[in-house]
Amino acid sequence: MTRLFIVRHGETEWNALGLLQGAVDIALSDAGRDQAARAATALAGMVSPDAVLVSSPLSRAHDTGLALGAVLGLPVAVDDRLRERAYGVWEGITPEEREEKWPAEVAKWHDHGNPGIEGFEVHELVRARMVESIEEWIAKSPSDLVVFTHGSSARIGMMGLLGLSLDHRTLGNLGNTCWSRLRKRPEGAWTLERHNVWVDALYAGWHE
Amino acid sequence: MLWRHAPTPSNTSGLIQGRLDIELNDAGRARAAWAAARIVEQFGSELRVISSPLRRAVATAEQLTSLVGGAVDLDEAFTQRSYGAWEGLTWDEVRRDFPEAWERRELGLDPEVPGWDGQEHVAARVLAGLERIWDDERPAVVVTHGSPITLGLLAAIGEPASSVVLGRVPHAAWVTVRRVESGAWHIESFALGADGVGKGS
C-alpha cells in the first residue's frame, strides 16, 4: 500500500497579512523558510528513501519541497495541476475590502459555496485536477508520494480522494508546513491516517 | 478533542478488552503524561476533561488534570463498545475459534457474537454525547477508545459506520473537531501525537 503525504507551503508575507494569494506567486518569508527547513527534517525521518516528491509550480510550495529534496538528495517534480485555486479579483486585497465590496459573495463562500466572483476557480475544477494529478503520481510511486501544495487545493484534493462531499468543510485547512497522510488501499479507496500534523508537536521529546 | 487512552499491557499483548476494566501500567502512564503536556501546549489549560468510565481512560485523563487542575467528569457515552464473548481472548484466538465472525469484522461489518455492541449503536451513542457536551466557548478533552472515536467521527461527518475514510487513531493520540453554526462537524486535525520524535525513528 502506498502512502501520500500532502504538505502545505511555509509562511509568506501575504499569509502573515491575511491576504489571499491564489494564483499570485508570492515567495516564502524568512519565517516560512525556517518552517520549511524544520518540516523537511521531520519528514525526512518518516518518508521512504525512494519517495517521489512533486510540487505546485508556485515558488512558495516549490521552495518548501526543495527543502525536503535537499535533505533526501531527491529531485522535486513540478505539476501545474497542484497549483492553488485562483481567487480572481479577491487576490491581494484585505479581508475588510472583500467583506465591504462583496458581502453576499463572502457569505456564500463562508457557507462553502462558490462565490461567483470574477476569476474564482470553482471547487469542482480544483477537485478534478488535484485528484487527477495525485492519482497519476501515486501510480508512478514505488512507495511514498510527497505532494507540496496550498491550503485550499490540499483540502479540496484530500476531500476528493476520500470521496467526501464539498457541501461541508469536513476537513479543516492545513497550517503552514503542516501535513496530512493518506493511504491508498489495494482496492483503490483512500483512508485518512493523519491530518494537520504540527511539526513542533513532534519535537517535544517523547522517548519510548 | 477526542483523545485515545494510552496503551495497557493487554493492548501490548493483543488481548481484546472491550468493557474489561484494565489499568494502565507505568509505561502507559508515561505515554499519557507526554501526550497531556503536548495537549496543554496546543490548547492551553482552560480545559474541561471528560472520560469514559473505564480505568485505562480515567488514568489517561488524570495525567491531564494533574496539569490543568479540576476533576475528571465520567461519561458513559464515551465508554468502549462491548466485544461480548470475545472479551479476554486474543485476536489470534478469535480468528481461530470464530473464523466467519472474524471475517465479517475484517470487512467492517458487525460479527454475530453474543453481547457485541453494534456499530450503528456505538456511533449514535458517541455522536449524541459529543452534541450534548459541545460548547463554543470551552474546549473539552474527551478520553475514549479506538472504536468510539472512529465510529463517532464517521457519524459526525455523515459517513456510514462501514466507511474506510478514517484510519485508526493510535493509542494516546488525539483528534480535534469543531462544530460550526450549521451543525456540521469539521475535523481540524487527526491522530496528532502519534509520531513523536524518538518513537520509531
CATH class of the largest domain in chain A: Alpha Beta
Number of domains of chain B: 1
- Helical/strand content category of chain A: alpha/beta
Q: What is the share of helical residues of chain B?
A: 25-40%
Helix and strand sequence of chain B: EHHEHEHHHEHEE
Q: Report strand order across the widest sheet of chain B.
A: 3-2-4-1-5-6
Tertiary shape of chain A:
globular
Helix-and-strand structural type of chain B: alpha/beta
**Name of the CATH architecture of the largest domain in chain A:** 3-Layer(aba) Sandwich
Please give the most extensive interface between any two protein chains, plus how many residues each contributes: A-B, 35 and 34 residues
Order of helices and strands of chain A: EHHEHEHHHEHEEH
| Contiguous uncertain segments of 5+ residues of chain A | 204-208
Output the CATH topology of the largest domain in chain A. Answer: Rossmann fold
Question: What is the CA-atom radius of gyration of chain A, in angstroms?
Answer: 17 Å
Mean pLDDT of chain A equals 93
Largest sheet of chain A: 6 strands, mixed
**Number of structural domains of chain A:** 2
In short:
Chain A is of the alpha/beta class and 208 residues long.
Question: What does this 3D model show about the protein?
Answer:
Chain A has 2 domains: 2-19 and 28-86 and 123-202, Rossmann fold (3-Layer(aba) Sandwich); 87-120, no CATH class. Chain A has 8 helices and 6 strands, in the order E-H-H-E-H-E-H-H-H-E-H-E-E-H. Chain A has helices at 13-17, 30-44, 59-72, 95-101, 103-110, 123-139, 151-162, 199-202; strands at residues 2-8, 52-55, 76-78, 144-149, 179-184, 190-197. Chain A has a 6-stranded mixed β-sheet. In chain A, helix 2 packs across helix 3 and helix 6 crosses helix 7. Chain A is globular. Chain B is of the alpha/beta class and 201 residues long. Chain B has a single domain (2-82, 117-192), classed as Phosphoglycerate mutase-like (Rossmann fold, 3-Layer(aba) Sandwich), CATH 3.40.50. Chain B has 7 helices and 6 strands; from the N terminus they run E-H-H-E-H-E-H-H-H-E-H-E-E. Chain B has a 6-stranded mixed β-sheet, sandwiched between helices. In chain B, strand 5 and strand 6 (185-192) form a beta hairpin. Chain B is globular.
